[in-house]
Amino acid sequence: MSISTAALTPERVLLRLDWQVIRRLDGLLQDNYRTLFYGYGVDFADLREYQPEDDVRYIDWNVTARMDTPYVRQYVEDREITAWFLLDLSPSMDFGAIQSLKRTVLVDFVTTMARLLTRHGNRVGAIFYGSRVDRTIPPRGGRLQVLRLVNDLLKQPQLTQSPFTNLTSLLEAGLHTVKQRSLIFLVSDFISEPGWERSLQLLSRRHELLAIRLWDPREVDLPDMGPIIMEDAETGEQLYVDTGDKKFRQRFREVAQERETALRHSFKRAGVDMLSLSTEEDLARAIVRFATLRRRRK
Question: Structurally, how many domains does the chain consist of?
Answer without folding.
Answer: 2
